[in-house]
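Lecture 7, part B: from sequences to assemblies.

Below are the input chains for today's worked example.
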Amino acid sequence: MSLLWLRFALGCYFVGLVYAFVALTRTSDLFSRIALHAATMGMVFHFVSLTELFLSGQIVWASVHNSESLLAFLSMVFFMIIYALYQTTSPGVVVFPVVFFLTFVAAVDEQPVLLTAFVSHKGWLIAHIMLIFTGYAALLVSFGASLLYLLQERRLKAKKATSLIAFLPALEVIDQIGYRSLLLGFPFMTLGLITGSVVAITAPTIGRVDFLDPKILLSVLMWAVYMVMVFTRWNSGWRGRRAAFLATFAFVAALAAWAANYFSAMHRFGTS
Amino acid sequence: MRYQLIGLNHKSAPLEVRERLAIPESRLPDTCRELTSYPGIEEGMVISTCNRVEIITHTVNGHADLRGFLHEHFHLDADSLDPHLYEFREKDAVRHIFRVASSLDSMVVGEAQILGQVKEAYATARAVGAVRGQLDQLFSRAFAVAKRVRSETAVGSSSVSIASVAVELAKKIFGSLHGKNVFIVGAGKMSELAARHLMAHGCASIFVANRTYDRAIGLAQKFNGQAIKFDDLYSTCDRADIVITSTGAPHAIFRREHGEQFLARRKNRPMFFIDIAVPRDVSQDMAKLDGIFAYDIDDLQQAVSSHAADRRKEAERAEGIIASEVEKFEARISTLDVVPTIVSLQDHLETIRQAEIDRVRGRMGQLTPEQEIALEALTRGIINKVMHTPITTLKTAAKESEATTVVDVVRRLFNLQVKAKEAPAEPTSNKEESGKKAEVGTRQ
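Predicted structure of the full complex, as structure tokens:
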């Protein structure tokens, strides 16, 4: 049943996906309103899906698909917070496709890849997942903002920004969105990694922690880039091209760390 | 819908002619009164601005001699006036009024002033009783249409002057201009204007640097700003978010190394240079730096003209809105038009019914209450059944183009015209109804 709701949500997010593509070439106030409503509907379905999964006790916290669904939901929450603060749907250009993709993957497959289920560390595990996903969502928004910043910077430099079709918010507003989500995401990501390590080190089933596991290496790499981003921004106000470069790097590292779920030994004890 | 309109505007008439026809505000009420007492005119209103003079009326038969009124009122002969006049009737008059109110007929398409002027003219005419039901309907709709055009299209939203383009660009970069600092380099009229615009949009403070220090002080005082010695330009410039530069220097005064300095001191927060100097004050390689946005006079001009193109595009969309609104308005008005016919049809049949009942009473003598009720119910039932189809047909026809034909046929079949002319003599409970009947009678 929860899968059904998730598929409804997927349908709604699809509208957002279409919006993301259309918004790059042209602006329509009506369409962005439609996309916003569709996204809200999608979130409602999504929330129902997650709640049902949780209440039915079927939730497997460490299932890849359940967590992808959760991550997509958290990203949408972030998107909505930004909409509430800045009245702009343009981060959707980046957020919608990612959310759609995550939900899609979570909604098609009924046989989730099982990650290690640490029964004895359930609390820690839940904390780890929630924290690190909030970090991911913030990183995603920050990444999106830095791409939009580049786009808007280009338009301003090419002297095209005066055209009426200007769906992007002002440069400094985009910058603020990116910086704030970066700042917000960093502590979550850090705590997420710490709780993850705690789970990994103390879990009785693991015994020896392999710190050369690709998942761990990539996560640490991502965290390091994240820290560099926060530092350069705070210290010398890096933005625009350089910030976008770092954000892309961090995002790719995050993606790789995520993809590592499918081949890392660390997160796959359940099936092996 | 017997609207009739005559007028001239900046397109149809040269300024000399418009000047002769312009009606001063103080004379407007009298003109309106004069207009409504002119033969064939029921309601009338006058719009007189520097770009147009228009007489809008609702007439008795749709063929009032508005040209005659103009000749009489302005004591002008036909030859000097007529070539410049345009006349619109019915639907075309409605469309014209919608276009005028939405500022699509203006010299600067989208300028907001005209709506206010039309509203004033409307209020004036209304105050002297020259505008009643029909023009009231037309203009309240016209104001709604103007509002719709303004909110659904971008006609009128984009600015045209260089100074306001500069403000718009600044907003694209900084979002809100609140708390931003402006630096004027080289005191000049144009930069002063731009600065004034920026301050009006919330910029916090102003610095002024000029080769002649005294002029800098003079200009700074105007804005409550701070004069800076020209030698200190590079060391203070980074405090400004927006720099308006217009010096007469033969070479660029802002070069790449300056830009890099500024950005380093500002922690890379962006800077906006409005360079209205010729030759330019900001060098090309500085303009390429990340975080420096420099617009020269040509860029600004181009932005202004691209706005004009956008405006044209938006005006086309606005025309679409107007076309559909005219259709809607026409449909509504013609729906209203069948109402008097229905009312007089009902009255007509009711009179026949009453007459027949009286005849029966006369023949049968006193009836018992039961018989009275039965008679009443019988006759009413027949009338209602007979009436049902014609009324439904009238109501459906009202929404289509055949309305007038159907109304005509019904009137002729039941000889309603004659009946309606007699109507005022009949005792009627409803004043409004009798008014409507009178209207039907006078139509055609």
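Note for the exam: The mean pLDDT of chain A is 77. Keep this in mind when comparing with the next example.
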